[in-house]
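User: Can you fold this complex?
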Amino acid sequence: MLGVCYYPEHWDETRWETDARRMRELGISFVRIGEFAWSRLEPRRGEFDFAWLDRAMDILHAAGLKIVLGTPTATPPKWLVDEHPDIIPYDEQGRPRGFGSRRHYTFSSETWWTESARIVEIVAERYGHHPGLVGWQTDNEYGCHDTTVSWGPEDLKGFKSWLRLRYQSTDQLNEAWGSVFWSMELKSFDEVALPNLTVTEPNPATRLDFWRFHSDQVAAYDKMQCEIIRKHSPERWITHNFMGFVSDFDHFKVGDNLDLASWDSYPIGFVEKFPFSEVERNRWAETSHPDIAPYHHDLYRAVGKGRFWVMEQQPGPVNWAPWNPVPKPGMVRLWTWEALAHGADVVSYFRWRQATFAQEQMHAGLNLAGLDELSPGGLEAQRVAGELAALGPLPVTQQASVALVFDYQSYWTTMIQPQGKDFRYEELCFRWYEGLRRLGLDVDFVRPGASLDGYALVVVPCMTEVTEEARAALEAATGTVLIGARTGSRDRNFVIPSNLPPGPLGYATGNRVIQVSTLRPGLSDKVSGAIAGAGIRWRETLEASGEVLARFHNGDPALTKKGNILYLACWADEALLGSLLSLAAEKAKLETLPVPDYIRIRRRGDLTFAFNYGTENWALPAGSKPVLGGGVLEPQAVAVWRH
Amino acid sequence: MLGVCYYPEHWDETRWETDARRMRELGISFVRIGEFAWSRLEPRRGEFDFAWLDRAMDILHAAGLKIVLGTPTATPPKWLVDEHPDIIPYDEQGRPRGFGSRRHYTFSSETWWTESARIVEIVAERYGHHPGLVGWQTDNEYGCHDTTVSWGPEDLKGFKSWLRLRYQSTDQLNEAWGSVFWSMELKSFDEVALPNLTVTEPNPATRLDFWRFHSDQVAAYDKMQCEIIRKHSPERWITHNFMGFVSDFDHFKVGDNLDLASWDSYPIGFVEKFPFSEVERNRWAETSHPDIAPYHHDLYRAVGKGRFWVMEQQPGPVNWAPWNPVPKPGMVRLWTWEALAHGADVVSYFRWRQATFAQEQMHAGLNLAGLDELSPGGLEAQRVAGELAALGPLPVTQQASVALVFDYQSYWTTMIQPQGKDFRYEELCFRWYEGLRRLGLDVDFVRPGASLDGYALVVVPCMTEVTEEARAALEAATGTVLIGARTGSRDRNFVIPSNLPPGPLGYATGNRVIQVSTLRPGLSDKVSGAIAGAGIRWRETLEASGEVLARFHNGDPALTKKGNILYLACWADEALLGSLLSLAAEKAKLETLPVPDYIRIRRRGDLTFAFNYGTENWALPAGSKPVLGGGVLEPQAVAVWRH
Amino acid sequence: MLGVCYYPEHWDETRWETDARRMRELGISFVRIGEFAWSRLEPRRGEFDFAWLDRAMDILHAAGLKIVLGTPTATPPKWLVDEHPDIIPYDEQGRPRGFGSRRHYTFSSETWWTESARIVEIVAERYGHHPGLVGWQTDNEYGCHDTTVSWGPEDLKGFKSWLRLRYQSTDQLNEAWGSVFWSMELKSFDEVALPNLTVTEPNPATRLDFWRFHSDQVAAYDKMQCEIIRKHSPERWITHNFMGFVSDFDHFKVGDNLDLASWDSYPIGFVEKFPFSEVERNRWAETSHPDIAPYHHDLYRAVGKGRFWVMEQQPGPVNWAPWNPVPKPGMVRLWTWEALAHGADVVSYFRWRQATFAQEQMHAGLNLAGLDELSPGGLEAQRVAGELAALGPLPVTQQASVALVFDYQSYWTTMIQPQGKDFRYEELCFRWYEGLRRLGLDVDFVRPGASLDGYALVVVPCMTEVTEEARAALEAATGTVLIGARTGSRDRNFVIPSNLPPGPLGYATGNRVIQVSTLRPGLSDKVSGAIAGAGIRWRETLEASGEVLARFHNGDPALTKKGNILYLACWADEALLGSLLSLAAEKAKLETLPVPDYIRIRRRGDLTFAFNYGTENWALPAGSKPVLGGGVLEPQAVAVWRH
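Assistant: Here's the predicted assembly.
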């Protein structure tokens, strides 16, 4: 199903009916509105104006559109910020981040919680039973623009309270943090300081707790909104629209509050954000890399416990990346089908019509700037709508054969203490995911500690802290389990395990990490044996009691095996990673379908989808009978067949 | 004629007579003094010491030198800053920019206007009728060191007042800015905030107004000084010495206050400042790029309504660039002749003698550091003086055949919203200028909206807002008009025109811009047809109703023609730009004289000048009879002949 | 002799005896403790707990270890910082540098002096006569993490006082600084401002005085600690552990307070800190560059007036560089022997056991993290201990044949006014040192103005201010004296000498510097004659009255000779530097032993040591009879023979 994001407040009221009608004509079923409209709903404290939104919702509903309403908390109005400056967040340099764009609040401000609860309650109460309303979106893109963590006085206050609860006494805090090092011991929680602007690096344990504190706050804040909404609008579902490549808070915990997850898919902008090489950035500039959107689809399907939407789908060039190329013809259609292939319920485009003013005026819409005229992207959406109608309802998404265990805390831990400047957790997971999909495999993301039942292959690119639940789940897994370096390298207090890494997995893997080398770009260590390639960036010296399947140039173990558990002692370069994942798939007895780097395959129910991100044709597997597309998959084309 | 900048206050009084005598012996006619001397003129509030300046001016005058006196407002003394800290400017990071160098004031401070008026009046009154005085310089290098825009409390106060005048009501302001987007609506002018340090980018319309506000202030501040000077010194002309590659305020508006423009020509330092490639930077390191000084000569001739000086000419290595090479032998002479060829009345060297102390002690002068001994640059100046005397008075500068419409606001607009990170307005204009001069053409800079009568060719590299006057002037032009991409892309409120870009020029060009792609370095789109090369950086999708002269690889229009108006739909790479300008010159029926990249030609009256920036000889056009130099133009040489 | 750094407070008391015993078993004689333990010694103001340290020292002593006790001033506890926030330093951006790591104090705070004196007195009094105590360490790594210079209110206060003493009157200050330039004149010392955050660069003379002020403070602060210690512990020696590549204060002046110098040798981390090319960084990533440790050994031998220790020797990978590779096998042993070859009395490893918590948990120790089990580095230390015992006492270190005059102020001066962005004084000295050692020569560092008696060759890479003492020492030198460019370019007030550079050495060298060109990377000027290669970065135009041994491409003098003094007029590229030093050695009649870039030689008494940093074997000079190692020096091996 298709949807669209719409801002009635941006356009003259006389245009609303036409807009609604044209949406329906295009084949759109859902419309999301309202998430930035606070200053129109409450222009001054206590002065409300709902008339316009009443009319807008009535018109949309009358046209047959199903409405998703956003709470407007991402954009507190100026009068509120002036009344309560404690709402304002601070950057890591200690500067207030002022009014004038969006997300100018810190989750630590108590005033902010009060004010958020107030406006959410008012909106939920008024519209909770509107006949056009089918669901809610809380806030907008938590964490976007680096807004999870804030470094101001309210944050310090909140952090102290959080620490008091976590540690009860400063003795326990000092013990947990190892404060004796450099005389950092505290005698009272009042002495706690923000872990920024220190002379040299602050205690990594403090920084991790500061990150956890903020992550916890996001989940709790979202829960507060959800509870209010559920009270006043019990029949409607709730989602939040997550962002791409934002890992500053634990999305799984926010997902626990929600009925379904959604995310905002800007595949081309993300090419500039992810640490690709310049060669890759040029190559994928006008299509995006073929795993960027899928990676997030699979991640947010997990966050949504199986249900997810794309709430905002890029429909053409955007405005916020360093460069913003027009997507190649066909890509808007391709991305839409791809989201559906990965299990999306709805793909909703951002936005109906390009704005002519303010920050996002260079962001394409389904209609040209200010006009009632479909843009190139709008025409592609129209085509998908027709194809979707022809194909009929899509089957249910099944469990994949491969699980990738994804752990937000490992991102925080390795950002806090990279040890090698280019150790980036997100990049690592992305590359493993890419490697699996190059083998034609479907992948599920799994939360640490969740059951791994039914997976033929489980991969853990890195999991710095292995909790008791995570250990148990991994040891209970019956498939092949592949564990990456740096796993189990810290306990919950950011302390090296007393049996050395991989700590709780020492027994299961048969390994002990004696020392770690981080290698600057240009340095590598050759690996040979059952797999071949090179270790780069991170390379462990292992004492292995199990089988050694591959070794570094000096004979040190590079890949070990004990039972069904493989352990890799380095960051793998491209060759080594390919070799490793092939071996793992083989051990897991998985049937693979290796594809060129510009082709991707994905199954949903009895349908197989193929997508071409490249510049060359690709022949479908022999015998495929396409229900969409032809036997030859042209550049930017989509094919679907029953398997 | 030649001049020099002199600081009597830097040297023992006993040396002044010798200095004045040696200036005259060298062939110098003009001497600029006084622009940094506030602390010597008024050591403490209300305590004045004019005796030294009286003596210095008398000595210079007695030696036959004509004096240009600077108002000392670029360097408020410490006692004044301590008395009135509100004078201090703030950087975009919100930090005060303290005392200890120069230009430590914000144009927004009311105290600063009062104090400036006071000192200017005192100085103008005392020296306004001095027999040696021929002219005034206001302040020094407005905008240098990023001092046009300031981000402090005084600036916010001034901005609010400026907005009140511009918009009268916040309803109108909200409408103009599109504040409804992201709930940025204001209910009172007191709610206006500085558009910096926001969470993500601030409203571009707000930023543009903030820039306009500061630009207006520079012009008004300068006007205030001019009015005081004219009251007390009605017979003398007034100038200001502008800087190179500073476009933060509208120089044309300041020029309106002045009798003539002047600028400070540091061709070598500017090589490091302009976004050249490393290859170009190395190539031109010791000569400068052959268009840097000419570009500014032609610009400031326009700002000065036909009259300009070089107030500060680099006479050797300077001190302020990342690297400061000694210019190749001959370059000081070449630059001097070149300025005259472009119409300068006077070329004045900075400075008479290298200082031995303080910030600029590594900046060469005509004399060695602290000594009465000509430097290598001093010897070249001496040679020019002799040649000038031999050649006799130079003819009057005539209107060129080509007009380049230069628009400061387009610089601000594209800096605020680059959309592609490397879209730099100054670079664009510079490359078009370079391309025209590679064809041997003379170029006039023209202010947007000014008459284009008499120009065979008019080029508009980019003009984001096309005012009614600018539209009328372009449509009235009878020559060939070449318009670059992004022109007419915004209205005065930073809003996309309702007929899409190029907005007011939609009819005249026959075009409508449907979407825009910005391309990262490495990406390009091939263009072929009447011109050939590639589009880079910025590429529009055009609907064209006129003739299409060239197309992109997919057939989209790249160059269109309707009547006498050409429109280019991209940023042109070097090949495309050369091809384009040749075509335009041909259509304009201009006779061209293509030159190698190290040779430049310029005409003044019946004289043609040639300059060699390279390492190879160049033969003068057949039949040229040089009145200066020979038939073969050697590296770093100058030739002049009558055409 | 070997030592180790130990933190009893990091480990359970029950482990101390085992630790002490195992230290002795390894062959360790010295143990440094206590330098970060303030919060354990004084948990709250006035509440002391010495019991644990009493016990620890008794146990170490009982095991036969000699104790070095550090004063704990590098880590003031939180209660003290909260009580006296004026202790906190400020960065150059004007931000306080908060509690939470170490060195969070400014030398300018009077409170800090009082508190430091208090804790040093208490500790010195209690332990000054402990039978296990042999020496003291003041504080820890002065200047590390950029903590010499601070930019806060206390610093401004202190700076004003320092200026009052230096200049007595503002007239003299204004004269010295050339404040007349840009109206920077001050009428009272109260008007002095910090020389940061100015609009453009501040007066270099002010900045130099600000740097001198801080450098003086470090020496005075250290002296204060030494005087207190000597009062209470008169029989023990005192040292300070200096850092590598920290030149913000004059180490010679601190050395005047001490009985011996020591330094902290992290050869691999420093590879990332020094401005090597990427090729060099990759090449030496796992061994370090073969001159990094030796350069500091020779420097600190001079600072310690002939006596020095390595107080902290890297025993494996560290944690603080951008990448932290494991050193190649053999390197820990090699570095240890190398330090001894250069005259170290003791090499003390940092640290006994890898910490499991806090900032340095990824820093290797002699034992694995948290365990009683030797790490790979620990095993190498054990091997050295055995070899040392076998070889017996090492001979006394003799004076070298070559003196390198090293001047901290030249570092400050050229940082303040690089003129060419890549003019780095430390790099220059390092490259000259490297060039000398590539000829197999031993080098002594010498303080400016110190006697140069007995040196066959004296090199002065650069000495911006040549004091009367320095001039006299150079002119009195009987060996060959080689002086580099930029020497004598400023007087004590940062003013260009009235006879132009090299100022006081104008007569002795026969030279006068007319102008200076700084060359961007990619530009160079060919030199030929008695030496060959190219000048890069800095190139002077010289008037030479002596002999010209080599010339630039245009005939300007590049190398001159007058009497025994050679003067080089540029920064030499690698070829030119090699050629120059060979010529100088030849003129000095020194016997050289050119070695490949991965081999180094060093003599101590009658022993010659050789070290292999490379990947290829090297044959010892014919006839060498190794007392350690074989006739073929393998990669990472050490050889010692009697000459």
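Chain B touches chain A through 49 residues (CB under 8 Å). Chain B has three domains: 2-147+221-391, 402-587, 599-642.
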